[in-house]
Design a protein that fits this description.
Number of strands: 9
Strand order of the largest sheet: 2-1-6-5-7
GO molecular function, one term: tRNA (guanine(37)-N1)-methyltransferase activity
Protein name: tRNA (guanine-N(1)-)-methyltransferase
Catalytic activity: guanosine(37) in tRNA + S-adenosyl-L-methionine = N(1)-methylguanosine(37) in tRNA + S-adenosyl-L-homocysteine + H(+)
GO cellular component, one term: cytosol
Family: Belongs to the RNA methyltransferase TrmD family.
CATH topology of the largest domain: Alpha/beta knot
Number of helices: 6
Distance between the termini: 45 Å
CATH class of the largest domain: Alpha Beta
Order of helices and strands: EHEEEHEHEHEHEEH
Strand content: 15-25%
Number of domains: 2
Helix content: 25-40%
CATH superfamily of the largest domain: SPOUT methyltransferase, trefoil knot domain
Shape: elongated
Length: 234
């Protein structure tokens, strides 16, 4: 069974976007995964197709209506649909590689792209939306975040990457950032490939890569070191 993604959005023309190219695009054409877009405005209750209203209690901006969004969710994810319902939101739990792997191992996802100041809390609770964040910054809407999430998931689906092992040594897979990479030429502007990488000693190469990964993580993301599952190189 392929991974089935349903994206609820006010801008369906933003999809598949970059997901229609390269690995994800070839996998989409091959049926490894599928993408459905649902126009939230189609479920509006008035002739103006209104999907938002002023925030209760006052304040700037507009809020997505619970009733309209609930209808769209119920259309995309009827009773019995096993797929998780995700809401792309800056206040959500940070998206991690572990969560990406969980999603890739599942049947798919229903992804709600928020807009305006946010979404009525009642529909979040009533439809059990899992709020997910792709970083500590604000976007114009949830669509770019949904593209990021789907790209991360699709590349892990069976057969998408040419070499499945390549996904096992990347940043975050082992609790550390990825080690530096080198390739030809042997010398570039006075800089040479580290001798250990051309030594042929796979044990020493593995140790070097682990040490470099630890050093990079210590410098750039020390918060990750506590999550590293393997003993740190000293």
């Amino acid at each position: 069974m392929s991974f089935a993604a349903s994206v609820l959005t006010l801008y369906p023309e933003m999809f598949p976007g970059a997901l229609g190219l390269s690995l994800a695009g070839r996998a989409l054409e091959a049926g490894t995964w599928s993408l459905e877009t649902v126009q939230i405005r189609d479920f509006a209750c008035d002739r103006h197709r209104t999907v938002d209203d002023t925030p209760a209690g006052g304040g700037a901006g507009m809020v997505m209506r619970a009733d309209v969004l609930a209808k769209a969710i119920d259309h995309a994810s009827p009773p019995g649909d096993p797929r998780p319902r995700l809401l792309m939101s800056p206040r959500g739990k940070p998206l991690t590689q572990a969560r990406v792997r969980e999603l890739a191992a599942g049947p798919g996802a229903v992804i709600v792209c928020g807009r305006f100041e946010g979404v009525d809390q009642r529909v979040i609770e009533a439809r059990r939306l899992e709020e997910v964040s792709v970083g500590d910054f604000i976007l114009s809407g949830g669509e770019p975040a949904a593209l990021v999430l789907l790209d991360a998931v699709v590349r892990l689906l069976p057969g998408v990457m040419g070499n499945a092992v390549s996904g096992e040594e990347e940043s975050f897979e082992n609790g550390l950032l990825e080690h530096p990479h080198y390739t030809r030429p042997q010398e570039f502007e006075g800089r040479e490939i580290p001798d250990v990488l051309i030594s042929g000693n796979h044990k020493k190469i593995a140790a070097w890569r682990r040490a470099e990964a630890q050093k990079l993580t210590q410098e750039r993301r020390p918060d990750l070191l506590g999550a590293a599952p393997q003993p740190l190189v000293k």
